[in-house]
Amino acid sequence: MRPGPLPWLRADARAGPAVAAMALRRLLLRYFPPGIILEYVEGGESKTRSIDLLDLRPDTDVTALVEEIQKREPLITASCLEHIIHLVQRLQEKLGEKQNHKFSLFKVLRTHILPLTNVAFNKSGSRFITGSYDRTCKLWDTASGEELHSLEGHRNVVYAIAFNNPYGDKIATGSFDKTCKVWSTETGKCYHTFRGHSAEIVCLSFNPQSTLLATGSMDTTAKLWDLEKGEEVATLNGHSAEIIALSFNTTGDRIITGSFDHTVAVWDVGTGRLLHTLIGHRGEISSAQFNWDCSLIVTGSMDKTCMLWDAVTGAHIATLAGHSKEVLDVCFDYAGQRIATASADGSARVYNAGTKQCIAKLEGHEDEISKVCFNPKGNCILTASSDKTARLWDAATGHCLQILEGHADEIFSCAFNYRGDTIITGEQLSRFDRFDLDMASQNCRGWKGPLEVIQHNSLPCSEPCHPGRLLTTDMGLNISKDEDSTVSLHNLLSI
Q1: Any bridge partners for residue 404, and if so which?
Q2: CB 124 within 8 A of CB 417
Q3: Which has the closest alpha carbon to 342: 319, 316, 361?
Q4: pTM summary value
Q5: d(CA 353, CA 356)
Q6: With contact defined as beta carbons under 8 Å apart, do 327 and 298 qualify?
Q7: Which residues of 256-269 are buried (b: 16+ CB within 10 A; e: fewer)?
C-alpha cells in the first residue's frame, strides 16, 4: 500500500527549505488514530508535527511506507529511519492484535440526588464528571469511586460538561443560568465565569490546544472564550434558532454549530467568520462532527437522515438514508472511513464513508438508541438505548457481541475511555415529577480490565511523555433529558 497525502497539523508551520534551522528532538507514538508525532525545535521554539497513518493496515509494506514519508518530511533523515520503521511496525502490531474480551459490571456509585444531565471521561479514563439538575458538577475517581470535588456555584441546572482533553487539567460547565464556568481538575477552584449569553447554555467544547472554549446557547449564538485571559473572543451569529451541538476539528482552526433551524454552520475560529452554511436537512439537527483529517463533516437530523459534507467547500456529498425515525446521534471512527448512526427506530447503522453504502445494521434494541460511539480502535461500536441496555457490536459485521444489563431504566449516554477498556453509561428513571431520594437513584457503575501502554517515547534518553498529551478525540457527551438518572461504569475483563 502506498501512502496518500500526509495531513500535517495545520497549527504548526510546515517544513520549509531551511531544514538546517530545525532540529528533531524526539519521536512520539500515537496508537489511536495511528500516527507519529515529531517534536522539534525551530528558531529556538519547540514545535510538533503529526504524521497521520489512517490507512495503515496489518499487511502494509512498512519499509515502502516509511521511505515515502521520508521523501515528504525533511525532519526524517537516514539516521532515524530505522527508528521510524520500528515505530510503524509497533503501530501495525497494535492494529493486528486480536481481542477476546468481555465487559463486566464492577461498580455502582451514588452521584447526585437530582437527575443527571451528562457524563464525560478524561482522556485516560482515570476520572469522570457528572452534571446534574442539582446545579453541581462532580468529579470522580473511576477506580475507587471516590468523589474528588463537587463544583458548586451555578444557579441553575448544569447541562453541558467537558474535560479539556487530552490534558485533563480543566473542566468546563455550561448551565441553564446562562453562564459557563471553568474549573481546576486538581483543586476544584473556579478559574473563570463566562457571562454573555442571553439564554441557556446547552453545549460546549474545548479546542484541541486548550486555549479556547466554545459555548452554544438557546439564544441562537455560539461564543468563543480565551481561557488564559478569561475574555470573550468572538460571537458566532448566523443561526435563526437554538444551537444544540458544536464541535471543533482536530486542528482547531474550524468549528461547526448545529441548530434547530435545520442547518449546520462552519466557522473560521481565528476570525469568527461564517465560511459555509450546510443546507439540506428538513428537520432539527441532532448531531454534527468532523472526521479526524478535517476533510468531512457528518450531520444527523430529526428528518430521519444523516448527511455527509465536504468540510473544505461545504458541498453536500451524500444523504445516508434508511432509518424510519429520527437520527439522534452520528459519529465517525478514528480513520473517518466509517460512520455510525443511532435512531429512534431502535436500530443503529454503519456506513462506508467512501462508498456511502450501509455495511451493517445493528438490530436488537427494543427502543430508541440515543447514543452511539466507536471504540478507539474502531472495530467495536457501543450503543445506549431506552430499553435499559447498552450493547457492544462488531463494527464490520453488525453482530451483537455483548449486552450490558443492570440498569433500571433507559440509558441516555455511553462512552469508551481512550484505552477502550472502560465504558461509562448513564441511566434515566422515568420519574421526572419525583426528585426525592426515594425515587431518584443517581448511581455510577464500572467494569475493570487490564491496562496497556498507549504511548511511547521512541528516542533514547528522552523523558516519558504525558499519558494524555497526544490524544485529541473528545469523549464528552452532550445528551440529557429531564428525568432521574444513574451512571454505570463497565471495565474490560479478559476471558
Answers
A1: 390
A2: yes
A3: 361
A4: 0.83
A5: 5
A6: no
A7: bbbbbbbbbbbbeb
Cα dihedral value 327, 332, 337, 340, nearest 10: -30
What are the pLDDT digits (tens) for 362-373?
Answer: 999 999 999 999
103, 494 in Cβ contact below 8 A?
no
pLDDT of amino acid 12: 41
SS3 51: strand
> If we measure between CA atoms, which residue out of 310, 277, 285 comes closest to residue 295?
310
Beta strands 338-343 and 147-152 are unpaired
Q: How far is CA 156 from CA 78, 121, 159, 216, 340, in A?
A: 60, 23, 9, 17, 34
290, β-bridge pairs: 297
- Longest alpha-carbon distance in the chain: 70
* Residue 82 backbone phi and psi in degrees, to 5: -65, -35
Q: Angle CA(58)–CA(63)–CA(66) in degrees, nearest 5?
A: 95
DSSP state of 79: G
State whether residue 70 is helix, strand or coil.
helix
Of 358, 352, 379, nearest to 58 by C-alpha is 379
The DSSP 8-state label assigned to residue 8 in this structure reads -
Write the pLDDT tens digit of every residue in 83-124: 899 999 999 988 888 765 688 887 777 678 888 888 899 988
